[in-house]
Automatic annotation (TrEMBL):
It comes from Sulfurimonas autotrophica (strain ATCC BAA-671 / DSM 16294 / JCM 11897 / OK10). One of its GO terms (molecular function) is DNA binding. This is Transcriptional regulator/antitoxin, MazE. SMART domains: SpoVT_AbrB. Keywords: DNA-binding. Residues 2-46 form the SpoVT-AbrB domain. Gene3D superfamilies: 2.10.260.10.
Length: 86
């Protein structure tokens, strides 16, 4: 259990470390959501794009100088439309 503590013009709470660890709230940005009977504190899920830049750089470096002929040719080749009647 904890109580509100005055912090400047605001108020805050102290959360015991075991609860922080159990709820995976360490060193993450937090989202606060007001519920009917209280306040929900949860970590912000920013992992969707985490590491994308590094992964893209690795893929580019592994395939440097290579050309993806199959996909590019398929997109640019309209020969299959020659038999089509408009």
């Amino acid at each position: 259990m904890t109580t509100l503590t005055k912090i400047g013009n605001s108020q805050g709470i102290r959360i015991p470390k075991p609860l922080i660890q159990q709820a995976h709230l360490e060193n993450v940005e937090l989202e606060l959501q007001v519920l009917e009977n209280g306040l929900l504190i949860k970590p912000v899920n920013n992992t969707g794009r985490e590491g994308w830049e590094k992964n893209i750089e690795e893929v580019i470096s592994k395939h440097k100088g290579m050309q993806d002929d199959g996909v590019l040719e398929d997109l640019l080749n309209d020969s299959d439309l020659e038999d089509w009647q408009w």
